[in-house]
User: Which sequence fits this backbone?
């Protein structure tokens, strides 16, 4: 075992505690992604363009607050030594975000036409408050990763834990909520959201040990150059956005974010209007995705350790995750959707195993170039760009529904409208992600040899 690995050794139990946050994020994502647009368009009855306007403003706020929160959480203070750099923000962001998600699905009962702009205000207030606290929570989680896990083996292993618990969270967030809802019953969505407030508070307790930074980490924070003098915000942002490999990584996951948002957001549309079934059937489709992911996850971990090349692993994952979307364009019936979901889960497993190590590599490189630990700022900018995937999703849905004549009040849709659902489920995200993959292959250049040199340089700089 290398000196670096000894210095940064983290127990499996602590890795699992840290990774439970990914479980919570996936529960959040499952509920928000599956039901936000569907709920407001088909259950509340709000015009899709009003929903779109509110959603775009939410994403813009989301994007602006990400780099600001990242910069603020990196700002040195004496409390780092006693409480840690990230742990306090995990508490500050985590608990309020759990409650704010439920408020999105708890609007007053109004006429969707005469009360449209009141509903619009509710969307803005509830979603933007949710996003503020969620950003503090998630950004602090991701920013801790490269500093907590210092070696390649630890990062791949921690990535495995995150992926595994994230998939379980995906299962809980996508499979359990439909058990509590009924199409046409608005109150069932509200009940579901508040049930998850209780569950998420319990889950949140399990992550606390994983975020209590060690005495060694707290001491290292106080020795960082950034602890002596904090760079101005604009100068920090300039450093961040000039890191080529980091920017390329962001582009790939901007497009991957569109895939995820469109896929999750389309499942209820596909279940109701293509399969002509009740919400419980969406569980079976999603179970196929989880089966493919969980069944392949350990094999992908072994493969990635043998490959020992984070760049190649991510290329394989993005490629598989993209081409396995194509079957959704033509499969018929529940069995066809399940088989397509299993294949997509296998590709998704490869992608998630490759993601965290590559992100950590890009931040290591940027840290060496800048001479400062600015993980919060990097993750803030990362989130800023990736959040635009949500604008991509809502615009894709709104434009496709408009062009194909989708009518939320009619169960039997036209063939063109059904094609539109398949287009925002698979075709459009697939094209965008392939573009991202090509850019990554030709631009990203962090090879195993370069990442090894970077890690040695970090040790020399005491970073």
Assistant:
């Amino acid at each position: 075992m290398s000196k670096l690995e000894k210095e940064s050794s983290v127990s499996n139990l602590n890795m699992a505690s840290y990774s439970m946050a990914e479980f919570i994020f996936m529960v959040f994502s499952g509920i928000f992604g599956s039901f936000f647009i569907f709920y407001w368009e088909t259950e509340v009855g709000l015009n899709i363009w009003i929903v779109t306007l509110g959603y775009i403003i939410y994403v813009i706020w989301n994007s602006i607050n990400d780099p600001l929160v990242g910069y603020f959480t990196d700002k040195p203070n004496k409390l780092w030594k006693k409480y840690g750099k990230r742990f306090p923000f995990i508490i500050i962001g985590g608990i309020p975000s759990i409650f704010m998600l439920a408020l999105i699905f708890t609007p007053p009962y109004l006429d969707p036409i005469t009360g449209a702009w009141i509903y619009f205000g509710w969307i803005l207030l509830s979603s933007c408050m949710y996003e503020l606290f969620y950003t503090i929570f998630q950004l602090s989680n991701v920013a801790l990763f490269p500093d907590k896990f210092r070696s390649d083996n630890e990062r791949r292993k921690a990535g495995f834990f995150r992926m595994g618990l994230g998939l379980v969270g995906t299962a809980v967030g996508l499979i359990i909520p439909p058990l509590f809802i009924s199409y046409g019953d608005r109150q069932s969505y509200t009940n579901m959201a508040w049930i998850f407030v209780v569950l998420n508070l319990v889950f949140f307790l399990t992550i606390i040990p994983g975020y209590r930074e060690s005495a060694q980490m707290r001491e290292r924070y106080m020795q960082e150059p950034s602890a002596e003098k904090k760079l101005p915000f604009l100068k920090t942002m300039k450093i961040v956005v000039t890191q080529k490999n980091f920017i390329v990584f962001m582009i790939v996951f901007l497009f991957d974010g569109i895939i995820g948002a469109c896929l999750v957001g389309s499942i209820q549309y596909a279940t109701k209007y293509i399969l002509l079934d009740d919400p419980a059937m969406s569980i079976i489709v999603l179970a196929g995705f989880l089966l493919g992911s969980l069944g392949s996850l350990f094999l992908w971990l072994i493969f990635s350790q043998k490959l020992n090349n984070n760049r190649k692993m991510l290329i394989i994952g993005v490629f598989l995750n993209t081409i396995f979307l194509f079957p959704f364009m033509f499969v018929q019936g529940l069995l066809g959707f399940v088989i397509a979901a299993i294949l997509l889960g296998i590709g998704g497993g490869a992608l998630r195993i490759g993601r965290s190590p590559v992100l950590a590599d890009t931040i290591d490189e940027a840290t060496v170039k800048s001479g400062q630990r600015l993980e919060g700022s990097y993750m803030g900018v990362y989130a800023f760009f990736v959040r635009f995937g949500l604008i991509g999703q809502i615009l894709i849905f709104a434009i496709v529904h408009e062009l194909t004549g989708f009518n939320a009040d009619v169960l039997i849709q036209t063939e063109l409208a059904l094609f539109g659902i398949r287009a925002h489920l698979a075709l459009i995200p697939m094209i965008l992600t392939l573009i991202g993959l090509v850019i990554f292959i030709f631009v990203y250049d962090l090879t195993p040899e370069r990442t090894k040199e970077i890690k040695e340089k970090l040790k020399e700089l005491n970073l």
Summary: Residues 1-7 have pLDDT under 50 and may be disordered. Residues 333-370 form the longest helix (38 residues). DSSP finds 19 helices and no strands in the chain.
